[in-house]
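Task card 7
Instruction: Convert sequence to structure tokens.
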Amino acid sequence: MRLDCEKTVLDATAGLRKLWIGRDASKVVFVDVRRDVLPDVLASNEFLPFRDEVFERVEYDPPHVTGVKKHDAYWFTGFGRRFGGWPSESRLLKNMYLVNDEFERVLRPGGTLFVKWTDIPDQPGVGFLVKMFTNFLEVSREERISRSGSKNRVWFVTFKRIDPQKELLEIHRQEARRHVIVDRIFAKHH
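Output:
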């Protein structure tokens, strides 16, 4: 059974809620797999417990580091405890593949997906991220300076959910308009 939700924004990687500092979070439901960050809903973003097309916006700030094993020293650093990581790049790929479909499912037609991504040396970059969200159209990409003081490039990428039915209808309309214009031009010259 899927949950309904009165809130209109899903933060699918709640963590310490860093994306919400200085922002109104009253319309946000926070989801995370880690019990210790006290999410509103304890769940994986790969299998969200919400009904279809319930949110206007999804925010996603996944771990950006790959190749960290369960008991590596990384997990005992402040960075590792706060942001987590993936055991392998293939595990990150699997997450991106699954959330691409899940986010499309829970977003309303025309809804937006907002992703924060940090380019870390020897890790997948923002280009990789954009290619993974095949169910979405990239609307904007903004580079910001890291608040942590690191020299890593931080990206805020906004995507729009593609509604295939609507997109095809719009392409059809544009083609029809083009044919009418061509017919008028042809008629004037003959």
